[in-house]
Write a structure and sequence with these properties.
With about 280 residues, this protein is an alpha+beta fold. It has one domain: Glucose Permease (Domain IIA) (Distorted Sandwich), CATH 2.70.70. Helices cover about 30% and strands about 20% of the residues. Strands 1, 2, 3, 4, 5, 6, 7, 8 and 9 form a nine-stranded antiparallel sheet that branches. The longest helix is centred in the N-terminal third of the chain and has 62 residues. The radius of gyration is 33 Å and the shape is elongated. The N and C termini lie far apart (about 90 Å).
Length: about 280
């Protein structure tokens, strides 16, 4: 068997060593590149997290400025004391409505009362109600009035004042008539109204407000007197005019107080249960 020449053997060994060194250097370079890519990715993700947190912080700050800018109004009831209602469905009721519950007041009469404007303002929307139909499947109407920083919504209107138009309106002006109930019980006619902020927020989600502290003294006393006499089953389960989420929700800042859990997690209306105005985590 022939032996390898020493010079040739030296060349082969040298070549193997060089190839090993080159491979090791390449692997090291690849590892360094991989580590650099990971560090870059971590840096980008960290920067994005900081940017997102800063963005949310700025958005929340902007929301708080809006909520703190509330310029309160005083309103009356959307019906006259000569046509007092005989029953109502309170805010926060959750038998018919999903949490956080009924977002306004539904009231009823045995006669076809007149619905009137609660304050000087501007009619900014008149449209057909696409959620509820009349007792004979006829169209019902929704009217929205803008009063300063607030929207007043008049719903379940069976008919409108034929002269009602977009534009300014005076307190007490005739808006329309309530709907005829498809299944009359205690009352034959029904109407819904609510008050909410007229603002666009980014994180805090405004809902309807409890109207009690926005009412003038006479109107509030009238409404509370109606509720005092109410003997419906709803009152046994929802004893206040404003229940649950809406209990004490009578300012813009109230939305901020209801937008976070006790641990600071951001929530939306209905994601947390309220009892007597207190969160139940």
């Amino acid at each position: 068997m022939s032996q390898i020449h020493p010079k040739k053997l030296f060349f082969i060994i040298t070549l193997v060593i060089l190839l090993s060194i080159i491979s090791a250097c390449k692997n090291s370079a690849d590892e360094q590149a991989h580590q650099a890519e990971l560090l870059k990715k971590e840096g980008i993700e960290k920067e994005q997290t900081i940017t997102r947190e800063e963005k949310e912080k700025n958005m929340l700050s902007n929301d708080l400025k809006l909520l703190n800018s509330e310029n309160r109004i005083e309103i009356s009831l959307p019906w006259s004391k000569d046509e007092e209602v005989i029953g109502l469905l309170p805010l926060g009721e959750t038998e018919i409505h999903e949490p956080p519950g009924h977002p306004g007041l539904c009231v009823g009469w045995t006669h076809n009362a007149k619905i009137i404007a609660v304050a000087d303002g501007e009619i900014t929307s008149i449209r057909i109600d696409d959620e509820v139909r009349g007792s004979n499947n006829e169209d019902l109407y929704i009217v929205r009035e803008t009063v300063g920083q607030y929207f007043i919504t008049y719903k379940h209107l069976g008919s409108l004042n034929p002269n009602l138009a977009l534009g300014p309106i005076k307190k007490g002006a005739w808006i329309g008539h309530p709907m005829v109930k498809p299944e009359p019980r205690q009352t034959n006619y029904a109407f819904h109204w609510d008050i909410e902020p007229n603002m666009v927020t980014e994180i805090i989600m405004p809902e309807r407000l409890c109207p009690l502290t926005y009412l003038d003294n006479e109107s509030r006393q009238r409404l509370e007197a109606v509720w005092e006499k109410d003997s419906s089953e709803y009152k046994k389960r929802w004893p206040k005019i404003c229940n649950g989420y809406y209990d004490g929700l009578d300012s813009f800042m109230g939305f901020y107080n209801r937008s976070f859990t006790s641990s600071g997690k951001l929530i939306k209306p209905g994601e947390i249960i309220y009892k007597n105005g207190q969160k139940v985590d």
